[in-house]
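User: What would this chain look like folded?
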Amino acid sequence: MSDGRRLALAVSQEQGRPASSHDDARAHASKVAAAQADPITAAQLLLELGDAGAAEAVLVSAFDRIEGSDYPRLVPLAEALQTRNFALGATACYRALLLAILARAYARAYGHAASYLRKLRQLAAQLPPQHSLASHEAFEAGLRASHPRKTAFWSTGSRQVDRAAPWPSPVRGGTPPGLKHPPRGEAWRPAGTATTAHPGKV
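Assistant: Here's the prediction, encoded as structure tokens.
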């Protein structure tokens, strides 16, 4: 049973209502989700109950509070939103994952970080014209400004774009992020950098 379904059933039981009613559970779970401090938990709950739009809205509005190192939960959430064509929610997830890896300067995970950047470049064309996140161009410019010396990451990202071939899906086990990521990339320094206020959200 997923975290979302478990929480929905718990809310229904606590309030003395039948847990078998999907609509009732969804209504109560939506209220619980709105009060969740963790946007990943809230989005999981809403997605489980069939409200991908609300899950996306939570992730976008609370982007600064997404724990990007929560790899086991965040990667499946991003994939589920992308599959349902909620590109903005998936973008928030992939940005958080990428920023967390670069913030840790964990070189063995740079191959996965480059894979997330490639996904973000693909999703950029699917984003709505108006939204509260920074544009992809501003986001990537912010990465180059904040992490110009992470040459192994930029080298790997450049090769992935050139080959236009997806990497295998990352490991989904319970191991903390980065511990099983294989090393990839050789040194390369970008020609220039740009500035932006915040790489994830305006």
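The chain has a mean pLDDT of 75. If you want, I can go into more detail on any region.
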